[in-house]
Glutathione S-transferase (Bradyrhizobium forestalis), 215 residues
Amino acid sequence: MPSYRLHYFPESGNSYKLALMLTLCGETFEPVWTDFAGGVTRTAEWRKTVNEMGEIPVLEIDGVKMTQTAPLLLKLADQYGRFGAETEDEKFELLRWLFWDNHKLTGYMATYRFMRAFTEKNDPQVLKHFRRRLEDFLGILDGHLQHNAFAIGARPTVADISMMAYLHYPSDEHGFDFAQSHPAIHAWLGRMAALPGWKPAYELLPGKRMTNHAK
């Protein structure tokens, strides 16, 4: 079986996506905590030796460093035969929601949450703009989940793992009470949390945490 090392920091929802996928597939990984807040990923040395794109996460598979969460989720789904598509129509739907998440939901939520909770000073107008966009995206997802148990239908896929990652963090970080504002998302997050082996990010990803200034 392959051996895995995951370079991460606990607040990274993208790191959590890979950690959760591996865990749900019955695999373990060696955690490699990364001082993202201290700026290590912006150094020339780190980019030369770990990830030229300057991003977390990095997943080492048998010593080979691999990056970009979405293709890694797809690779793991194919490798383990779990949380992937079974037909061409399902494959299209999975990719449709996975790409939408990367460009819209995760893209905006990751930035909004980081600015809101993990920076001491931020521009209220910028936060207002990001939240307005997120409310639109969350409304789209909530509407979809009113008629679908998971992203592509009756069973979870890597699209669900990708979309739920940043949404499952504590509400004092992202500032949303989904039980009140988006009940279909809240119910879906519960279905994801009921999957055998599921654990939240702060259990799967140990290490020094960043200060939450939104508390």
